[in-house]
Design goal:
By secondary structure, the protein is an alpha+beta fold. About 45% of the residues lie in helices and about 20% in strands. The strands form eight sheets. Strands 2, 6, 7, 10, 11, 14, 15, 16 and 17 form a nine-stranded mixed sheet that branches. Strands 20-19-29-28-25-26 form a six-stranded antiparallel sheet, covered by helices on one side. Helix 11 (about 375-395) packs antiparallel against helix 12 (about 400-450). Bound molecules: adenosine-5'-diphosphate (ADP) and magnesium ion. Adenosine-5'-diphosphate binds near residues 27, 70, 111 and 116. Adenosine-5'-diphosphate (ADP) binds near residues 113, 114, 339, 472 and 473.
């Protein structure tokens, strides 16, 4: 790379343009992809990566700094963990030793291999552990007389735009630790306020902190759905090198600092296309603002370096980009690794990842060595003293005044110099103290986790429960021992005395008890709390065997291990079928639960659909009534108009009769009045004719109108019939139990079911009068389910609204945060957001008690308003005026 050409130069003020290094890595097929008989769509040759879209057979080709083929081990160019470390991370470490900042981040869809690349698994260690170990190995080989190394680390997670310290379990007050915030130092730039920064002196120090951090992540991930795929984890090492140089036998310290940021980003699918086009942002929730903004920053930087014009870079729009300001377009040597799946089913996401990575290729950073200002000052002071000494020597003989002046200055500089040196010594002392404090805190944190039941060292004969997580990185990280006698399980609260303390909405205060009597282990469910063994919800004490799956409260998955039982079975001959616990992973437990809970889940989904249809029918009924009502009132208006017209006609006739009577009486005057009479008669005749015509027209209009209404009523009735039939069929099917074909049953439905239960539990516990339902939106045309939403019903106000699944997920995360913090006041706007479109609640509305306002909202239902829009009632006024003006 061009940036390396000058790296061994002595110039410490060196500033270099350095391109962001971009690599792509393709992983092997997962078991699921293998089972689907997937074909690979990716090929690599040199630094080129090509994707063939199986749908169109079109080939897309991209070129990066590196293309890593990790698809099959037997391939001659297979990229192992070690090889990737060497190619991508070793140069970064070299730069860090030179005093530059370094950064590496992994981008890609969930399950594509980000964590495998960054952290790795057991023997397949990834970049982070390799780099840390390498760092300490290199330090050990350095001459300690010449360079002092000092290392600190931090490890945090960005989730929902909040920063969670992974190295602190509980705040000093014993309360749950609050999220941290980003601040900006005028000189040093953005930083996380209050973040734990631990001094580390060996690789094993880092390992134990990482273990602690990963246990915290695993604990947090169980409480929040999809948390691990939606969060970014940032591991930072800060290295300070103090080089001891001697100038004229005097010690001269020279300090270099560098930050090494290693980042495992959230799954790229958390920032879908709909988000980038701004569509869903209208909802007021961003699923992952940090990832969205990272894309914007990369795109802006790439444009900037291509057209050479200074552009606004929206670093401050998200927590992650603000913190990574220096790593992108700033003072850092940065690399990115984009991970992709080889499977055809991921083609679209893979292409989007490759395009994203391509943009990053053109970003240019400006890296410079970070030299400590104090050290430079000392050097400058020393040079100054030397100069003055020389001047002093020459002035000694000539000018005593000047001599005294020089002496004074030298003294004051020496004082300053000593001050600086004392500062450095003080810093060393402070570091040592910090190190000791960190060690103490680590022990306290471990104790705290152990109090919650999480074991650190496995006792190899006690039975235990190990956690299973959707994210393999967080699976089998938490270990809970089952001691002889009773082990109680319950919700984690400040005063909980339970042996195993779990967080989570659906975990009851006293959830279950596990009994271990001479190696026989059984689990006893308590009251309402849900406990599943091998997928089935249990109501009675159940004996556990090695490899059994235990699920508590809906989303805490465990595998039961019984080492003694394994030994026994191994000794007996027929035990081979028993030992496949390697397959009893999260995927296995989840599928088993899905199959066992199928009936339950299906009836839940059907319930939602039935409800949706019933509501639809109800609104058709209401629309019908409205039409009926309109018709009646129109008819009444027409009839009264006809009556009044008829009365007028009668009046005119009566007037005419009187006129004729008068005519006879005043026969003598006839002649005189002949002319007037003729005129009057003409006028009367005309009036009568006009009124007759109007009556006729009004009658006709009424007739037309009635026919028109009758047609609409007929249509609505047919509509109602159709829905009623659908409902009938649904109900019939439910009775028959043959329905499996119509309902797409999947993992997401089960997850949604658990999430809805959680939301209802929180609402109930906080007294929020809000209930949540699964709502299957039905397409107007086809009558089939077009999308799934969550219906939010405020039973106190009798109003209802609908949330998309993404919005619901976001809101639930916020609810859980509030629930955990026990601050129910702030919950108000989660449960009732005035910005939502609320409608009167249909479900309990009796059709007869219709209000106008209510009717208006029914019109929003397209299927019904479509029918009603045809009803354009002509105002009576118009008929009259048009006739009058027409005659
Ligand atoms: P992500 O962090 O991107 O969600 P993971 O790193 O957890 O994905 O990988 C998902 C699964 O794929 C894990 O079980 C992991 O062991 C496996 N995997 C990923 N990359 C590789 C690879 N290069 N070689 C072998 N297995 C891999
Ligand atoms: Mg991961």
């Amino acid at each position: 790379t061009p940036s390396e050409s000058n790296s061994t130069g002595k110039d410490v003020f060196k500033v270099e343009n350095s391109k962001v290094i971009v690599a792509v890595r393709v992983r092997p097929f997962s078991n699921r992809e293998k089972n689907e008989n997937s074909l690979p769509v990716i090929s690599m040759s040199g630094s080129e990566t090509a994707v063939r879209n199986p749908a169109t057979n079109q080939v897309y080709s991209f070129s990066y700094d590196f293309s890593f083929w990790s698809f099959d081990e037997c391939h001659p160019n297979f990229a192992s963990q070690a090889m990737i470390y060497k190619t991508l991370a070793v140069p970064l470490l070299e730069r860090a030793f030179e005093g530059y900042n370094a950064c590496l981040f992994a981008y890609g869809q969930t399950g594509s291999g980000k964590s495998y690349t960054m952290m790795g698994f057991d023997e397949d260690r990834g970049i982070i552990p390799r780099l840390c170990e390498d760092l300490f190995t290199q330090i050990a080989q350095m001459d300690k007389q010449q360079v002092l190394y000092h290392l600190e680390m931090s490890f945090f997670e960005v989730y929902n735009e909040k920063i969670h310290d992974l190295l602190v379990f509980k705040a000093e007050s014993g309360q749950k630790k609050q999220p941290l915030r980003v601040r900006e130092h005028p000189v040093l730039g953005p930083y996380v306020e209050g973040l734990t920064v631990n001094v580390v002196s060996s690789y094993s120090d880092i390992q134990s902190w990482l273990e602690l951090g990963n246990k915290q992540r695993a604990t947090a991930a169980t409480v929040m759905n999809d948390r691990s795929s939606r969060s970014h984890s940032v591991f930072t090492l800060m290295m300070t090198q103090t080089k001891v140089e001697f100038v004229d036998e005097e010690q001269c310290d020279h300090r270099l600092t560098s930050h090494i940021n290693l980042i495992d980003l959230a799954g790229s699918e958390c920032c879908s296309k709909a988000q980038t086009t701004g569509e869903r942002l209208k909802e007021g929730v961003s699923i992952n603002k940090s990832l969205l903004t990272l894309g914007k920053v990369i795109s802006a930087l790439s444009k900037q370096s291509q057209n050479g014009k200074k552009t606004f870079i929206p670093y401050r729009e998200s927590v992650l980009t603000w913190l990574l300001k220096e790593s992108l377009g700033g003072n850092s040597q940065t690399a990115m690794i984009a991970t992709v799946s080889p499977a055809a089913s991921s083609t679209e996401e893979t292409l989007s990842t490759l395009r994203y990575a391509k943009q990053a290729c053109s970003i240019i950073n400006i890296a410079k060595v970070n030299e400590d200002v104090n050290a430079r000052l000392i050097r400058e002071f020393k040079a100054e003293i030397e100069k003055l000494k020389a001047a002093q020597r020459s002035a000694l003989n000539t000018d005593p005044e000047k001599y005294r002046h020089y002496l004074q200055e030298i003294t004051s500089l020496r004082i300053k110099l000593h001050q600086q040196e004392r500062d450095i010594a003080e810093m060393q002392r402070a570091w040592k103290e910090k190190f000791e404090q960190a060690e103490k805190r680590k022990l306290e944190d471990i104790k705290e986790l152990q109090k919650a039941g999480i074991a650190f060292k496995m006792d190899n004969h006690l039975p235990n429960l190990v956690n299973l997580n959707e994210d393999p990185q967080l699976s089998e990280v938490l270990l809970y021992m089952i001691k002889e006698g009773e082990t109680t399980v319950g919700r984690c609260t400040p005063n909980s005395k339970h042996d195993i303390q779990l967080s989570g909405v659906l975990i009851a205060d006293d959830h279950c008890v596990i009994k271990n009597t001479v190696g026989k282990v059984s689990i006893i469910p308590l009251r309402e709390a849900k406990t599943y063994v091998n997928g089935k919800c249990i109501l009675d004490p159940t004996v556990l065997h090695h490899g059994d799956r235990v699920i508590l409260g809906g989303d805490h998955y465990f595998r039961f291990n019984h080492p003694v039982e394994v030994q026994k079975v191994k000794r007996s001959s027929c035990g081979s079928m028993f030992l496949h616990d390697g397959l009893k992973d999260f995927e296995f437990a989840k599928n088993e639960l899905l199959i066992a809970q199928r009936t339950q889940l299906e009836s839940e989904i059907e319930e939602a659909r039935l409800k949706a249809k019933e509501e639809m029918m109800q609104s058709v009924q209401i629309a019908k009534e409205m039409v009926q009502q309109e018709l009646t009132s129109q008819k009444e208006a027409y009839e009264s108009k006809i009556k009044s017209l008829e009365a007028e006609v009668r009046e005119e006739s009566r007037k005419k009769q009187i006129q004729e009577l008068n005519n006879q009486k005043a026969a003598t005057k006839i002649q005189e009045l002949e002319k007037t009479k003729q005129n009057l008669e003409l006028e009367l005749h005309f009036n009568k004719k006009r009124l007759e015509m109007e009556t006729l027209a009004t009658k006709q209009a009424l007739e037309d109108h009635t026919i028109h209404h009758a047609k609409i009523l007929e249509a609505l009735e047919a509509e109602k019939q159709k829905i009623a039939e659908e409902i009938h069929n649904l109900q019939k099917n439910r009775g028959n139990g043959n329905k499996t074909t119509t309902i797409p049953l999947n993992w997401n439905s089960l997850k949604l079911s658990v999430m809805i239960k959680e939301a209802n539990t929180i609402s109930n516990k906080l007294g929020k009068n809000t209930v949540f339902y699964r709502h299957d939106k039905i397409d107007n045309k086809t009558g089939t389910v077009s999308s799934v939403q969550v219906q939010v019903r405020n039973i106190k106000l009798g109003i209802t609204t609908f949330w998309s699944l993404e919005k619901f997920a976001c809101k639930l995360a916020a609810m859980k945060e509030l629930y955990e913090s026990n601050d129910s006041n702030k919950a108000a706007d989660i449960f009732y957001d005035p910005a939502d479109e609320w409608e009167p609640d249909l479900s309990d509305a009796s059709v007869s008690s219709l209000s106008r306002r209510r009717s208006r909202s029914f019109m929003k239902n397209k299927r019904i308003s479509g029918c009603l829009s045809e009803i354009k009632l002509q105002p009576i006024q118009n008929i009259q005026t048009s006739h009058v003006s027409g005659t």
